[in-house]
Amino acid sequence: MFCHAGKAVKRPDNPVFVQREEIRKKTMAYLLDAIDKKILEILQEDATIPNIELAEKVCLSPSPCSRRVKNLNEQGFIKRAVTLLEPEKVGLPVSVFIQVTLNHQVKKELQDFESVIGQWPEVMECYLMTGDFDYLLRVVVPNLQAYQEFLDKKLTELPGIDHIKSSFSLKQVRYRTELPLDQLLEK
Predict the structure, then answer these.
(1) Torsion-angle region of residue 160: left (phi > 0), alpha (psi -120 to 50) or beta?
(2) I want to staple 92 with a disulfide (CB 3.0 to 4.6 A). Which of 16, 87, 123, 161 is the partner?
(3) Which domain holds residue 31?
(4) For the whole prediction, is pTM greater than 0.85?
């Protein structure tokens, strides 16, 4: 719907209009203004902030603030809102970074590996890499015995794996979930 002469009218099926809308949606990353950017920064820090409080922080009234948040959601800037847990408090204090090299880096082998890895709850992150190994995994477990079990009963049982190298985190020096939005262009 859009407004025409003060009335809500259904969007035209005009291909030019549709094409312009698609272009506008694809280029939205470059059209964030300072208020949108501030909203995203605040929501990255605390997604549970009440709209009234958020509106005050960005100097808007609640309704326009709510509309902006809704628009940022619809445009795909906000992937989802989550609650971050403290790993040690929930009994998962051990983080292991695992470098995995496959026998062959062919499409089917990559897809099969990614499909299986995606089903394992211990695997927090998985990246396809360039360089000396194919994948980098971050796995969380309660202790070394649980990691040994993960290695023996899951990872080493996968076909097509050539090499596995594990590194244990001694201390988390820096961990962020907030993206550095100060690098975005403003409209």
Answers:
(1) left
(2) 87
(3) 9-74
(4) no
